From TrEMBL:
NCBIfam families: PRK05678.1, sucCoAalpha. InterPro entries: Cit_synth/succinyl-CoA_lig_AS, Citrt_syn/SCS-alpha_CS, CoA-bd, CoA_lig_alpha, NAD(P)-bd_dom_sf, SUCC_ACL_C, Succinyl-CoA_synth-like. HAMAP family: Succ_CoA_alpha. Its EC number is 6.2.1.5. This is Succinate--CoA ligase [ADP-forming] subunit alpha. GO terms for molecular function: succinate-CoA ligase (ADP-forming) activity. It is an enzyme of class 6 (ligase). Heterotetramer of two alpha and two beta subunits.
Length: 296
């Protein structure tokens, strides 16, 4: 099992014919993803060869969906065109849009995430590495060869930390890894992923990676207290960050005591979440919790 993305998913790539789109489409195909088409209105009707696979290009998401039954789109378009691309996908009725693009203006993200939600389209991102269900499908830029299928569900604001925890826990493996993105506005939250992993029968333990700034992790802690029965292990990036300064991601800003790593750690630990201070310590906590599950 998995959340959001499986081997049955049929994937379009908006911006497939650009440099980044071409590179990552090839990687997604190599991971077994069922990519059924690209979208570029200026190149509609052509095909693009990826090794032994010819992928058709459609003029719109709606055309691609009609021709292929696609239910996922991965967005590799420049920031200025991201709002239009996501709006087009939502208007076509696609179920999942994975928005890789970084540097999107916040007002555009606010507009298209709200619009997509009203249309019934789930957004992953923006400014995210996408998501991967190891051994089944990969939608985005997450390396497919650093882990294997397994029983851990992972959600993360940080792409780099997603990769590191996947690698540290590669011997156990993952059901699905979701990079939710580090911008102030994202389409899928920690809470959304927690709910999905809670309902996934093959996810035995959940890893939550957060970072300084905002209150998403505190809200996730309240949700865990009330709704999650599976063990959760967390990691918060930014214990050594100075106050009042943005740290990498646009959402990672601390004001006073609000949004600090210590405050988030305290909130999570108060509801039974083990929180590591480093990725390696977090991996050790995961192994310890899994060992307890097996002994019980």
């Amino acid at each position: 099992m998995a959340i959001y993305l499986t081997k049955e998913s049929k994937v379009l790539v908006q911006g497939m014919t650009g440099g980044e789109g071409m590179k990552h489409t090839r990687r997604m195909l190599a991971a077994g993803t069922n990519i059924v088409g690209g979208v570029n209105p200026r190149k509609a009707g052509r095909t693009v060869d990826f090794d032994d696979r010819a992928v058709p290009v459609y003029g719109s998401v709606a055309d691609g969906m009609r021709s292929t039954g696609a239910d996922v789109t991965v967005v590799f378009v420049p920031p200025a065109f991201a709002k239009a691309a996501v709006t087009e996908a939502a208007d076509a009725g696609i179920g999942l849009a994975v928005v890789i693009t970084e540097g999107i203006p916040v007002h555009d993200s606010v507009a298209f995430t709200a619009y997509a939600r009203a249309k019934g389209t789930r957004i992953i991102g923006p400014n995210c590495p996408g998501l991967i269900t190891p051994g089944q499908a990969n939608a985005g830029i997450i390396p497919a060869d650093i882990t294997k299928p397994g029983r851990i569900g992972l959600m993360s604001k940080s792409g780099t930390l997603t990769y590191q925890l996947m690698y540290e826990l590669r011997d156990i493996g993952f059901s699905t890894c979701v990079g939710i993105g580090g911008d102030p506005v994202v389409g899928t939250s920690h809470i959304d992923c927690l709910a999905a992993f809670q309902d996934d029968p093959d996810t035995e333990l959940v890893v939550l990676i957060g970072e300084i700034g905002g209150d998403a992790e505190e809200r996730a802690a309240a949700y865990i207290r009330d709704h999650v029965t599976k063990p959760v292990v967390g990691y918060i990036a930014g214990f050594t960050a100075p106050e009042g300064r943005t740290m990498g991601h646009a959402g990672a800003i601390v004001s006073g005591s609000s949004g600090t790593a210590a405050a988030k750690k305290e909130a999570l630990e108060a509801v039974g979440v083990g929180v590591g201070r480093t990725p390696t310590e977090t991996a050790r906590l995961v192994l310890d919790r899994l060992d307890r599950l097996e002994r019980n």
